């Protein structure tokens, strides 16, 4: 599993560069449309506080106290847009620095519970990168409708979609099997849609799409990541996405986002 921290650091720095010059734009719409730019920063910051506490508790062998997350969310909900932005960037930097400070020996012992799952350090860092890359885009697209996910993050996140793709998907008729071929980087995915379940499968990274037949949909990898995270509505779908339009519409419903 590749190290997610360099890509996470780059995403943190880009987000800071986007947000620091903003003033009135902090209350402009981001993505999703119900969120402002400041709301995105509030989510980045509050999740950073909670995740760092989970990490520190795991390293110390403690359980996180009940109600901690709810207290953090309530605190951040009460912040002004300016505070959400400033505090969000500050926490983002502190949490990323904390992750970077953990050496190889200590990393090998980390085991962090998140809901019903437990992650080792590499998986934990990848989870933060996935979230951060998408929230970076949430802000960027509010400022530039043509914004896309950053390539350095896409290279890593495209291979870490199975968890989000499996557990946030919703069965939507009709039952069928769809294949998606991505570019930059090249990958092949198979989505099996059944009445009660979704099966999210990733093919061999080196597999030629010709070997499995013509894919149902072709798209850039960054667009597929956004699709799985519920961020590929018609207004934010690049012209390079090609294939069965009905299948694409179904996939948008199958992946409403976390």
Describe the protein in words.
With 258 residues, the protein is of the alpha+beta class. It is built from ten helices and seven strands. It has a five-stranded mixed beta sheet. A two-stranded antiparallel ribbon has the order 1-2. Strand 4 and strand 5 form a beta hairpin. Helix 2 packs parallel to helix 4 and helix 6 crosses helix 7. The radius of gyration is 19 Å and the shape is globular.
Largest sheet: 5 strands, mixed
| Cα end-to-end separation | 23 Å
Strand order of the largest sheet: 5-4-3-6-7
Number of helices: 10
The counted number of beta strands is 7
Q: Give the overall pLDDT as a whole number.
A: 93
| CA radius of gyration | 19 Å
Please estimate the helix content. 40-55%
Spans of at least 5 consecutive residues whose pLDDT stays below 50 are 205-211
Please tell me what the overall shape is: globular
Q: What is the percentage of strand-forming residues?
A: 5-15%
List the keywords.
258 residues, two-stranded antiparallel ribbon, 10 helices, five-stranded mixed sheet, 7 strands, globular, 50% helix, alpha+beta
List the helices and strands and how they pair.
Blueprint lengths: L4 H15 L17 H24 L7 H10 L3 H21 L2 H4 L3 E4 L2 E4 H23 L7 H7 L4 H6 L8 E8 L3 E7 L4 E5 L14 E4 H8 L13 E2 L1 H10 L4
Parallel strand pairs: 3-6
Antiparallel strand pairs: 1-2, 3-4, 4-5, 6-7
Helix pairs in contact: 1-4, 1-6, 2-3, 2-4, 2-6, 6-7
